[in-house]
Amino acid sequence: MMIALTPLTTIAAKEFRDRIRNRWVVAVAILFALFALVIAWFGAAQQGSVGFRGIGPTIASLTSLVIYLLPLIALILGFDSIVGERERGSLDLLASMPLTWFELVLGKYLGLALALTVATIAGFGVAAIAMLPSLDANAAFHYGGFVLSALLLGYAFLSLAFLISVYATDRARAGALAIALWFILVLAFDLLLLGAMVMVGDRAGAPLILAMLLNPADVFRILNIFSSDELTAFYGLATVLPGWLTHPGVLGGVMLGWIVLPLALATHRFRQHHG
């Protein structure tokens, strides 16, 4: 299928400008910067120490923050991307433009993904500049990898938000589904998986460990834990997870699947109903 770049970039630019105009990007960037700086300098305040503790503990704390915050932001950003246009009656207007339904969905996704990218990089970039005197080349490399993995996590949940938006019949249902999905994947999934591991013991350990790949938040967590030998030893997962499961290439491929597959399903569903 040939994709016309001009309509695609027009839709993407409109979505991005809308987020800039309503100061969404600025608000999220400030939020990420503040949290990252507070965690980097005051994360060990309960132990009576203040200051940068090293890149390992900082990434561990930031990983926990991103798992809770970034999926919610991405879901809120995209849950009404399609159903909202339908409710406002602007979907028919967009349909009258010289573009395909695929270009419409992809253009809106790229625009929102760009807004999420700018906000994330700006926020964590400010924190990186503040930490720069304490970072060596290796620490800077790990921090850059953490930011990249955070972006992949955001893109994955943005794809899931588009899938919700295509299937939902109205904005209220889409919002409820988005919150429910965040609760299931971010809060409930690991508790259920841990409970299942305790119940079955060693009998079904491998399948349950592989089930972690069914949750992009867990893929993100594993990717960052195994970026550092210090964090791997701290979490005690080196003897639990098979070596191939912790390879960055495998985990990155799984995360890309979480980005592409929901968006492809959303596009297919959208084309079925409007094509």
TrEMBL record:
Segments forming a coiled coil: none
A Gene Ontology cellular-component term: plasma membrane
Transmembrane residue ranges: 24-43, 55-77, 112-132, 144-168, 174-194, 246-266
Molecular function GO labels: ABC-type transporter activity
A matching Pfam family: ABC2_membrane_2
Key words of the record: Membrane, Transmembrane, Transmembrane helix
The protein's name in its UniProt record: Cu-processing system permease protein
Annotated organism of origin: Chitinivorax tropicus
